[in-house]
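Hi R.,

Here's the chain you asked about this morning:
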Amino acid sequence: MTADLPETAGFVPADRIAALGVSEILQIGARAAAMKRAGKPVIILGAGEPDFDTPDWVKNAATQAMAAGQTKYTALDGTPELKAAIAGKFRRENGVDYTPAEITVATGAKQVLFNALMATLNPGDEVIIPTPCWTSYFDIVRIAGGVPVAVACDGAQGFRLSAADLAAAITPRSRWVILNSPSNPTGAAYSEAEYRPLLEVLLAHPQLWLMVDDMYEHIVYDDFRFVTPAALEPRLKSRILTVNGVSKAYAMTGWRIGYAGGPEALIRAMAVVQSQSTSCPSSISQAAALAALNGPQDFLAARTESFRRRRDLVVAALNAIPGISCRVPEGAFYTFASCAGLIGKTTPSGRVIGSDRDFCAWLLDEADVAMVPGAAFGLSPYFRISYATSEAELTEALARIATACATL
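And here is the predicted structure, written out as C-alpha cells:
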C-alpha cells in the first residue's frame, strides 16, 4: 500500500496504482500551504500556474453562456464551435490543418494524454520520455499498462533529447515518444533545427508515434521561434498527436480545458475512453475556451514580457549563489538550476545536504521557501523554481535562498 493512501481495514489498492503516489509537487505545495496557514512566512515557488487572472472577456463569455442556458451536456469530445475554433488556431498559429473529426477536447490536457495512452498502450508497450519531465507522464504510462523509458537529458545538452539517444532507446516494444516544448520543468525548447534530426529518426521507425505537449507555446522569450513537429514534417502528421490547452497562455488552469489534434482513428479511440470516464468537458468552460481562442490575443505579449523579466531576475540571482548554476530557459515560467556544488555540505545544525531533496526540504524549513527537487522530475541534483509570482516575492525568496546557502 502506498504511503499516500490512508490505512483502512480490508482495503487493497489495485495493482495499477499500488506503486504510485500523489504527485511530489502537490505534496510539497500542501506542506508549504499548511505552514503558511500556521503563520509561517512561506513563499511558494512550486505552483505551475500563471499568477495572472483569466481575461475579463473570457469570464464574461462563461457568464453569458450560463445565462443562455448552456449548462447541459455537450458533444462527447467538444462542441462543434470549440472544435472549429481549435482548428482555426492550429491553422493560424501553427500552420497545421486538422478537421473537426481530428480534434478532441477534454477536461484538461492531462486527460488528453491519459485518453491517448489508455487508447493505444498494451501491457509492456514502451513510451520514450526525455527526462527531466513533467511528473505525470511516467505515472499515466504506468496506469495505462505501459513501460516508461527514461532518457536522461542533462544541462550540458540543454535538457533536450538528441537523435542518437532517441535512436538508442527504441526497441520493438516502443509505441510513443513524448516531447514537451517549452518544457516543464526546465523551460528548454526545441527549435526547428533541433527537432529535425529527431523527426528523421521517427521516419525510420513507422511503429513509433509522437506525442507533443505544446502547453507553453505562447510563453517563449528573446528571439526563440516556437514550432510544432506536425507542421515541420507532414510525412509524420498521421502519427503525431499535438496536445495543447488554454491553461497557461490564458491563465485558465481551473477551467480544465485541454485539446489535441491528431489522426481521426486515434481521436475516435480516445473518445471511447473519455465516454467511459468523464464524458464531455464542462459546457461553461468550453464556452470560455471558445472566447479565449477567438478573442483578443495581444495581451499575451505583455504577459510574456512580464515572465521574461522575472526569468532574468531569477537566473541572475541563482547564478550569483556559490554552488548553484542555472541555465537560461527559452520558455515556460520555470528555472531548473543545479545545486551540485552544495551537495555534501553541512548546515549550521549539522544536517548534511545529501541530495536535491535534502536541499529543498532544508530551504523550506530554514528559509520558508518552497521549491521542487529535480528528483521529482527524474534528474538530480537540480531544483525547479516557478517564477509565476510577483517580482517582490521572487526577490525576497531569492534573498532568503542566498542567505541560507551562505551558512553552509
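One quick note: The two ends are 37 Å apart (CA to CA).

Cheers,
M.
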